[in-house]
Design brief:
alpha+beta, Alpha-Beta Plaits, four-stranded antiparallel β-sheet, elongated, 36% strand, 3 helices
Length: 104
């Protein structure tokens, strides 16, 4: 069974926005952090909105605990202020049953 979730992430823009005269600019900081996110197991995609610096992500994992790990790993890369998680109906294939009784 796979659990699919969409993540609405908000970031601390003070950490990500570069000030004039700093060595790296805001886009460079975002690119570097997005490359780090590409190695997070279970995170299928993440799209950052540049202005207010928030993002939409999509994860697919085997359990709620692994979904929590995905969010925690994103928080190690980006300065998270908040995360709203939308869990989609678990993807069950014909003849497959959910291990978690909450999903049956």
């Amino acid at each position: 069974m796979q659990i699919e979730a969409f993540l609405n992430l908000t970031f601390d823009s003070n950490v990500l926005h570069a000030l004039p005269g700093e060595a790296d600019d805001t886009l460079s900081r975002l690119k570097t952090r997005l490359k780090k996110c590409s190695t997070i197991p279970g995170l299928l995609e993440i799209h950052v909105v540049f202005g207010p610096l928030w993002a939409i992500g999509r994860a697919q994992v085997d359990s709620i605990e692994k979904l929590t790990n995905v969010i925690n790993d994103i928080g190690k890369v980006f300065p998270l202020k908040g995360c709203l998680t939308f869990i989609v109906q678990p993807q069950l294939y014909p003849g497959e049953e959910a291990e978690d009784p909450n999903f049956n």
